[in-house]
Every structure is written in structure tokens, then in C-alpha cells.
């Protein structure tokens, strides 16, 4: 077997020599491939015989050298070993350095990608649901308080995201809260990722957001914001509540100033004229269909803050004069002022209606219950199918009733002082609100005299006739004639606010006291702003027999007002008062063209929602 293995080994060596020579001569493989195949077969046979792979023949061990020749060889081997170890160590250190540098590069690239993607950053994103789970020491600053004096300080604000603009690697936002707005800016930097900028740019308008940043003073005023002299350099931006439905209109369209002046009288159809300047504006009906959004505009925020202040000033002035606030029922058994223009309902099998005013009950409390001076603020219902710019089916009534000693001029003096106090108070306390309204709905400041101008009904009719208007002293004034009279009074006396008294008895409610000098007239009065009535009042009848007489003249069933008339059978103070329409006062003070603009959620013959 050993001789056979040797023969195969020799043959393999011969074939190897042939193949090497062929390769050296660069002969094509086709000429020596047969030798290669045969050599491979012989190697396989060699392994079968010997059990080992074929390899180059081992060299015979040389004879052992003398001791003197072995020691130098061992010494040389130790030096080579040390040298090789040093080389290996250096190579390992070099490879380790390369690996370390490669890992550092990969880490930097990974961090860059993650930073751009915002991975691990908590300075932007959707905020947790506000569910009253925690209380922190965070402090929010009102946007209206952002002023240059705070420049350099970190501020936190919450507001509606009105607009967003992506510019290059940055974003500009306009944040709005109540009456005020401020611009915020955010540009990519070490702390601001590209993902943060994109997140801000991707949020839908009117989402509620929290913004943290440093307050700065811009080089130029920010004309699009109310806080023109500051802006926020944003460092944190979180969405508290994201708009989840398409907006019915753009807020910048809803905030756009009026194009021209609308009339404030006449029919209201809900149809809108196209803007002469070609800019998009939101129509009144679209606004009212989405009133909760429309109320966000700075102008509307201002209108209803002014309206709130009217209520405050009304209460403040009357309470300082000894008046008591009352709360009367709005479901009554008969029409409070006669007539059929009431909303009727079934009250557990009994006929009832919604009160047209608190008239009967405020008389009871002031004249018959000993309170003497009372007022009320509350809803008033009128089932009048009047589709005009100044009528509503439900409005807020401000009513006053008071006992008098000798003359109903005592009432007129209280009302005159009341309105002057309201007008003065609005001009002093609501300057910012008034300007916000004027920015969108331009108007002239209300002119009024102190004391209030007083003319009789007959004098007013004469002024109209002198101006060429057909008006009889005993006929009711039409809306058009009231408006014309307002213009005449403004031109003649320099005031938008006045009142007339001594109205014809035939055009006043049944409980109005007749004039002692002329039975065709009454001790009644109306107050006007810009030629439109905002208050109607009179001295009331406090004698039951005369009340019955006047109720019969009006055709009012006495059974329907029995408790009212009976309340005057036990001693009643001479008295009078009036009722004010809050929405109309605000509308006319601000020169608005439509009462729906000063009603929170208007109710007219065609609207009962939202």
C-alpha cells in the first residue's frame, strides 16, 4: 500500500510539473485541463489509500546539530517571536482604532438622522390629553401681555394656530387668543430639528397649541399680529388639541375688514353681495351656521366683551341707585303686553306662552311688593315674523321699574344718567375692544349729550315734516321715519342719542298712563341711538279700574290678567319704567349693520340653530 501511495504521489508531482510548465508558457487551459482532471482524481485516490489529503512531501528531519549550534537558533527564534508579537499588537491597535473611528462616524450619522427625524426629542409633538391628572408649576402668559418690556424672557402661551408659513428651513406661525395675536418663528438649529419645523408646518389651522420660547423685539413691526412689537423665538411647540375636521372657512377671511358700509335697516334675506375688491369674505349665514368658530374672530371677541360690559355697567349704575335685581318667570298664562305675537305652549293642559317681557311681574314687585326700585336682565320672546336687520324672536331684555313721587320725569332722569354712565364706561374701560371692532367694522364714535337731548313726539314729527316727510302727530313712526329723524337730530343737535316722550296713546300698551293734558297722548317715551329705538317705557297705570278699562279697550280678556290687576287692589305705588334691548344697544353703539352680529346665537323667524 505504501508503494502504491508513493507511485500516485510521483504521478501527481509529474502532472503538477506539466501543469506548471503550461501555465508558465501561458498555454490555454484546454491544452492542460486533462492533466488537471487526472491529478485531481489521483489526489482523491491518494486520500482513499492513506486517509490524508495529498500535500507536499515532508522533508526528512536533519540530523541533530551539536549543542553549541542549537542555542543560537533558539535565541534567534525568541527574538522573531517578540518582533512578531509587537507587529501583531500594533496591527490590532490600528484595527481597533479604525473600528472605533468607524463606530463614531456611524453614531454621528445615526444621531443626525435621529435629530432630523426628532427621535428622542420632547420639545415638540402632541401633548398628553389634559385630563386633570397633574398640577405643575408651569406658568402661561396671556398673549395680550406680551410686550417689549418682557424681551429676553422665556414665555409660555396657549392659543389657536391661526396661520402657518414654511419658509426655507423655518416656520412662521400666528397664534391667537381672545382679542390678541402674536407671531412665532422657528428655524432649524442645534436644538430645533427639521422634524419639529415640519411638525409645526403640518398642523391644521385652528388647532390649540402650547408654545414656549424667548420673547424678542423684531426689526420691523409685525403687521399681521396685534402684538406688533414682539415675536416669540420658539423652542418648544406642542399641540394640545388638533383640528380634526375641515374648517368651514379660513379665519383670515373671517377677520377681513368690511368692504363698504351695509345699511342697518330694511329686510334681511341672508344673501350676500360680492365684495367690490374681489377678496373673499365670509357671509353672515355661513358665520351663523358655524357660530362657535365665528365667535373666535377678534372683532366678535370684542363685541361680546363690550356686551358683557354693558350688562355690568347697567347693574352697577342701578344698584348704586338702590335698585334690586329680580328674576321673574318666562312662562306665563297670558300675553304680558296683549296681542297675539307670543309663542304659545301647553302647560300641563293649560294654555300658556313665553313672556314678551317681565312687564307685569316687575310692576308687581316695584309698585305692589314694596321693593320700589327693581331691574331684571333676561330673555324676551317675540313671535314676530320680522325678517329685518334689527329684529330677533328672542333677545336679552334689560328692564327697569321704579316708584315715582310726582312725575315720570324721575324715570327719564334715571334712564338718561344710566345710558350716559354706560357710554362713558364703555369708552373708558373698553378702548381695546372698541378698536378691535373698528378694525373689521369701521364706525364713527357715538355722539351724545349730557344731559340727554329730550324732545316731544310732536316736536319730532314737526322736524320730519319740515324736512319734507309726511308724518302725523298721532301716527306711529315707521322704521324709515325713525331713521330719518335720527339723521335730522344729528345734524341739528350734534347727537346720535336722544329720547322723545308724549307718544300717542293708541300706539302704546294697555297699561300705559294717559296724558293728563291730552287724552290722545300718553306719559310714555322712547330712546334712540343713530335713529333706531333701543328703549321703550312709560308711567304705568296703578289703579285697577283704569287698568280694566284700558285692557277692555285692547280686547284683552280680564281673566288672563286677573292676578296682575288684582295685585293693584291692595295699594300700589305710582310707578313706571322701561325695557332695553341689549343686542340693539350694542349693535348701534358700535355702528354694526345687523343685530345678528351682536347676538350670541341669534333666533330669528328662519333660524333656530345652533
Describe what you observe in this structure.
The structure is a single chain. The chain has 610 residues and is α+β, with helices and mostly antiparallel strands. 38% of the residues lie in helices and 19% in strands. Strands 7-11-12-17-16-15-14-13 form an eight-stranded mixed beta sheet, sandwiched between helices. Strands 2-3-4-6-5 form a five-stranded mixed β-barrel. A three-stranded antiparallel beta sheet has the order 8-10-9, with no helix packed on it. β3 and β4 (180-187) form a beta hairpin. α1 packs antiparallel against α2 (29-50). Mean pLDDT is 91; it is low at 59-67.
Q: What is the distance, rounded to the nearest whole angstrom, between the alpha carbons of the first and last residues?
A: 110 Å
Helix/strand/pairing category? alpha+beta
Oligomer: single chain
Rg estimate, integer Å: 48 Å
Task: Describe the secondary-structure layout.
Elements: H1 2-24, H2 29-50, H3 67-117, E1 124-126, E2 154-167, E3 170-177, E4 180-187, H4 194-202, E5 208-216, E6 231-241, H5 251-254, H6 284-289, H7 291-294, H8 298-320, E7 324-325, E8 331-332, E9 344-347, E10 350-354, H9 359-368, E11 373-381, E12 394-403, H10 409-429, H11 431-440, E13 453-456, H12 457-466, H13 479-493, E14 497-501, E15 524-529, E16 532-539, H14 544-554, H15 562-566, E17 575-581, H16 582-589
Parallel strand pairs: 1-6, 4-6, 7-11, 13-14
Antiparallel strand pairs: 2-3, 2-5, 3-4, 5-6, 8-10, 9-10, 11-12, 12-17, 14-15, 15-16, 16-17
Helix pairs in contact: 1-2, 8-10, 8-11, 12-13
Amino acid at each position: 500500500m505504501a508503494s502504491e501511495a508513493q507511485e500516485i504521489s510521483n504521478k501527481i508531482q509529474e502532472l503538477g510539473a506539466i501543469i506548471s510548465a503550461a501555465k508558465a508558457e501561458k498555454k490555454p487551459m484546454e491544452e492542460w485541463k486533462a492533466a488537471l482532471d487526472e491529478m485531481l482524481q489521483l489526489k482523491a485516490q491518494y486520500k482513499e489509500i492513506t486517509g490524508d489529503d495529498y500535500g507536499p512531501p515532508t522533508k526528512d528531519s536533519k540530523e541533530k546539530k551539536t549543542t553549541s549550534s542549537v542555542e543560537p537558533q533558539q535565541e534567534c527564534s525568541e527574538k522573531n517571536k517578540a518582533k512578531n508579537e509587537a507587529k501583531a499588537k500594533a496591527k490590532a491597535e490600528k484595527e481597533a482604532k479604525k473600528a472605533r473611528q468607524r463606530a463614531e462616524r456611524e453614531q454621528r450619522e445615526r444621531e443626525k438622522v435621529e435629530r432630523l427625524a426628532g427621535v428622542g426629542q420632547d420639545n415638540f409633538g402632541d401633548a398628553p390629553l389634559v385630563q386633570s391628572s397633574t398640577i405643575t408649576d408651569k406658568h402661561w402668559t396671556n398673549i395680550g401681555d406680551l410686550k417689549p418690556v418682557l424681551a429676553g424672557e422665556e414665555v409660555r402661551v396657549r392659543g389657536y394656530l391661526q396661520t402657518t408659513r414654511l419658509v426655507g428651513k423655518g416656520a412662521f406661525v400666528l397664534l391667537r387668543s381672545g382679542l390678541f395675536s402674536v407671531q412665532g418663528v422657528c428655524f432649524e438649529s442645534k436644538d430645533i430639528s427639521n422634524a419639529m419645523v415640519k411638525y409645526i408646518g403640518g398642523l391644521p389651522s385652528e388647532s390649540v397649541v402650547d408654545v414656549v420660547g424667548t420673547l424678542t423685539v423684531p426689526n420691523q413691526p409685525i403687521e399681521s399680529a396685534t402684538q406688533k412689537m414682539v415675536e416669540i423665538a420658539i423652542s418648544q411647540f406642542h399641540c394640545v388639541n388638533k383640528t380634526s375636521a375641515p374648517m368651514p372657512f379660513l379665519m383670515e377671511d373671517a377677520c377681513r375688514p368690511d368692504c363698504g358700509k351695509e345699511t342697518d335697516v330694511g329686510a334681511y334675506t341672508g344673501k350676500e353681495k360680492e365684495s367690490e375688491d374681489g377678496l373673499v369674505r365670509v357671509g353672515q349665514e355661513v358665520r351663523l351656521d358655524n357660530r362657535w368658530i365665528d365667535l373666535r374672530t377678534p372683532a366678535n371677541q370684542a363685541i361680546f366683551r363690550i356686551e358683557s360690559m354693558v350688562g355690568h355697567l347697567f347693574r352697577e349704575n342701578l344698584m348704586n341707585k338702590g335698585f334690586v335685581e329680580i328674576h321673574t318667570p318666562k312662562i306665563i298664562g297670558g300675553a304680558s303686553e296683549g296681542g297675539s305675537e307670543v309663542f304659545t305652549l301647553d302647560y300641563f293642559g293649560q294654555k300658556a306662552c313665553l313672556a314678551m317681557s317681565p312687564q307685569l311681574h316687575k310692576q308687581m314687585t316695584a309698585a305692589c311688593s314694596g321693593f320700589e326700585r327693581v331691574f331684571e336682565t333676561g330673555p324676551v320672546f317675540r313671535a314676530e315674523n320680522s325678517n329685518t336687520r334689527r329684529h330677533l324672536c328672542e333677545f336679552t331684555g334689560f328692564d327697569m321699574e321704579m316708584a315715582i313721587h310726582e312725575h315720570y320725569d324721575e324715570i327719564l332722569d334715571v334712564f338718561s344718567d344710566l345710558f350716559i354712565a354706560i357710554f362713558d364706561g364703555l369708552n373708558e374701560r373698553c378702548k381695546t375692544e372698541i378698536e378691535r371692532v373698528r378694525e373689521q367694522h369701521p364706525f364713527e364714535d357715538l355722539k351724545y349729550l349730557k344731559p340727554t337731548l329730550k324732545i316731544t313726539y310732536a316736536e319730532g314729527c314737526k322736524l320730519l315734516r319740515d324736512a319734507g316727510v309726511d308724518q302725523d302727530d298721532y301716527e306711529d313712526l315707521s322704521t324709515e321715519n325713525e331713521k330719518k329723524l335720527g339723521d335730522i337730530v344729528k345734524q341739528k343737535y350734534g347727537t346720535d342719542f336722544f329720547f322723545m316722550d308724549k307718544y300717542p296713546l293708541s300706539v302704546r300698551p294697555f297699561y300705559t298712563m294717559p296724558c293728563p293734558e291730552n287724552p290722545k297722548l300718553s306719559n310714555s317715551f322712547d330712546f334712540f341711538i343713530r335713529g333706531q329705538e333701543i328703549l321703550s317705557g312709560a308711567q304705568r297705570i296703578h289703579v285697577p279700574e283704569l287698568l280694566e278699562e284700558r285692557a277692555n279697550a285692547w280686547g284683552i280678556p280680564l281673566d288672563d290678567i286677573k292676578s296682575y290687576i288684582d295685585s293693584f287692589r291692595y295699594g300700589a305705588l305710582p310707578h313706571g319704567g322701561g325695557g332695553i334691548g341689549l343686542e340693539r344697544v350694542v349693535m348701534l353703539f358700535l355702528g354694526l349693520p345687523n343685530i345678528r352680529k351682536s347676538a350670541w346665537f341669534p333666533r330669528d323667524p328662519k333660524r333656530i340653530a345652533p
